[in-house]
Amino acid sequence: MVLGGSIAGLFAARVLADAYDEVQIVDRDTLIDVAGPRRSCPQGKHINGLLARGQQVMEEFYPGITNEIFADGVPTGDLCGNVRWYFNGVRIQQQEAGLTCVSASRPMLEKHIRRRTAALPNVVFVEQHDILGLATTPDKSKVTGARVQARGQKREKVIDADLVIDATGRGSRTPIWLQELGYGLVEEESKKVGLGYVTQHYRLKSDPYHGDLSINPVANATLPRGAIFTKTDGGRVELTAYGILGDHPPTDQQGFYDFVKTLAAPEIHEALMHAEPLDEPVAFRFPTTLRRHYEKLDRFPDGLLVVGDAVTCFNPVYAQGMTVSALSALTIRNHLHSGAAPQPMQYFQDLSKNVIDPPWEMTNTVDLSFPGVEGERPLQMRFAQKFLKLVQYAATKDKAIAAQYMRAAGLIDGPEKMQRPGFMLKVLLKGIFGPAKKTPAPPLVPIAGGHVETWSEYRNAA
């Protein structure tokens, strides 16, 4: 049984369907045939990035799904070759790096993953059910199912299961349930980033992209504001502008435009002045990152695993959550190879070391480059921050360095690829004197008819 029909829950259900006679996905929402944002997924109204490694795993789980998504009007491109990145206010070089972008809105991506999961003959969706707690053996050493309650009914019921997966997100009650069952307190690690962002959708009347897929000015210590301005499904463009440490975009239209005007990519604001808003600006607040260290517990009940945001909530600016959820499902599959239920502590130790540690350390390094973010900055981290800035400087001059940096950011390559002596020397030589000179953004080009319906039409027009 999977608790939660999120993307993390769907990925988990997919791998479990290969090992169990039946997999039940329990969620408080209606899931089947839902096309728009779900009530229990507030981030569904905002940009949700699937990194290149996440796309690879998704395709492995559901062969052919990437092309199915593209055929549904979703734009695509290369994370380095077709995305205009600004770091420290300067645009880096662009080069194809083999990093497939799936520029789908969250509801669109979820729809396709859910449809392919529902097509599995042994997967059952238990919709409109609240999750009340776990069921266990009398000695509380093994979880045997979950207590649930159908919406609108007073009587609860127990659904028995050989294995329960908690995919209920940041609000997961597993730490509370463990304490109630007599297990230890789960150590939590958090960092206050004070992130706030606002999202709005548009139809463009002029083109700022010139063949690119997205324009992404990244926040930095000097200007703690950034944005993702990307083409998405339905012939629309999607803008999420963000600020950290309380410097949040306003939700009134003029205030939002004024905020966007301060970003390092002036072409975004210029394009908005010739765009048709399709909805109102919508805000989201993300005060702290969060990591639950289940791997540090002395003991853990059999028959229970935790995945996705229920384990680790990354700073969403780095778009790592869905990809880590996919890698978490891969980890579950690796622990199912013997045909027996996974051993929880072995799973959590593997998950922590091989899936969560690398991106967590990467984002910690970046988050703590902002002086106002509280946290320890040991010598090793300060060195990593200086080197990262050199990489970003060098990437404004060298396409190969930019591509390698984006491969690391896309979780395709581990950080060790940027620690090779030859690469480090090249970064030092290219980056020691700072970034390249700023170049003006290309001029806006009118779009015939006011907007482009599909990505293929856009490419043909271009």
TrEMBL record:
SUPFAM superfamilies in alphabetical order: FAD/NAD(P)-binding domain
InterPro entries in the cross-refs: FAD-bd, FAD/NAD-bd_sf
Keyword vocabulary terms for this entry: Monooxygenase, Oxidoreductase
Ranges for domain FAD-binding: 2-329
Pfam families: FAD_binding_3
GO MF terms, alphabetically ordered: monooxygenase activity
UniProt cross-references to PANTHER family, sorted A to Z: THIAMINE THIAZOLE SYNTHASE
Protein name, per record: FAD-dependent monooxygenase
Protein source organism: Actinokineospora xionganensis
